[in-house]
Amino acid sequence: MSAFEILMLVCFGAAWPFSIVRSWRSKSTKGKSPVFLVIVMIGYGAGILHKILYQLDGVIILYVVNLVMVAVDTALYIVNRRREKT
Question: What's the domain range around 52?
């Protein structure tokens, strides 16, 4: 378990709740990139796979929590995009 890996995941993870709240309140896709969100989810998925295959430790929880937050933000993007089209 690396303190630097934990710090990185905590810092990256701190931004997602603000992004989710912004998406929820604004009901807009303005400033969002679905490509970026998917790339970030792939990155967190790769981190989870690495932990499962090579170095299973408690840090996997941070990867999963971050992945879930990005998935929620992506789902809000999809809902808001559909709302904007109608």
Answer: 3-85
